[in-house]
Amino acid sequence: MALYSEKVMDHFVNPRNVGTIENADGVGEVGNAKCGDIMKIYLKVNDDGIIEDVKFNTFGCASAIASSSMATTLIKGKHISEAVELSNKAVVEALDGLPPVKVHCSVLAEESIKEAVKDYYNRKGIKYNPETLEIIEG
Ligand code: FES
């Protein structure tokens, strides 16, 4: 069996949504201290809370690049509250799996999106639970 699925190879060789967004509404950056890989996500969010555009820059391994590419396709056009719920497991499933030693690469995608959403909430003055990222009303 090939080590990487066709989807992983596709998103690694031909990554979607690479780049940066000037005047982004939220930016999230995370790194993994062990492997040294870094992922940065940019969100453009409209007044209805819909993610109109998302871009990423990943300085990392093939799985990290494929994970960030897939993650951006999964949250583009979605409401910010749905992006917060994207798990690394969902990213791995959408990629038709990652080798076990590479699952941490998908965690970077989940975490960088969460950081970008936190940044968006902070800029907008939206109060949220720092653990669950649920919005605190009132
Ligand atoms: Fe660290 Fe892939 S080896 S993100």
Short description:
Helices cover 41% and strands 17% of the residues. With 138 residues, it is α+β, with helices and mostly antiparallel strands.
What would you say this structure looks like, in words?
- It is a single chain.
- With 138 residues, this protein is α+β, with helices and mostly antiparallel strands.
- It has helices at residues 6-13, 62-75, 80-84, 88-94, 103-124, and strands at 26-31, 38-45, 51-59.
- It has a three-stranded antiparallel sheet.
- A hairpin with a 5-residue loop joins strand 2 (38-45) and strand 3.
- Helix 1 crosses helix 2 (62-75), helix 2 (62-75) crosses helix 4 (88-94) and helix 4 crosses helix 5 (103-124).
- The longest helix is centred in the last third of the chain and has 22 residues, at 103-124.
- It is globular and about 50 Å long.
- The structure holds FE2/S2 (inorganic) cluster.
- FE2/S2 (inorganic) cluster (FES) binds at residues 32, 35, 37, 60-61, 63-64, 102, 104-105, 108.
- Please trace the helix and strand order, writing H or E for each element: HEEEHHHH
User: How much is the radius of gyration in Å?
Assistant: 14 Å
Tell me what portion of residues adopts beta-strand conformation: 15-25%
Number of strands: 3
What is the strand arrangement across the widest sheet?
Answer: 1-2-3
Low-confidence stretches: none
Query: Largest sheet, described in full?
Result: 3 strands, antiparallel
Q: How much helical structure, as a percent, in the residues?
A: 40-55%
Contiguous helical run count: 5
The secondary-structure class comes to alpha+beta
How would you state the average pLDDT, rounded?
96
Rough outline: globular
Distance between the termini: 53 Å
Bound molecules: FE2/S2 (inorganic) cluster
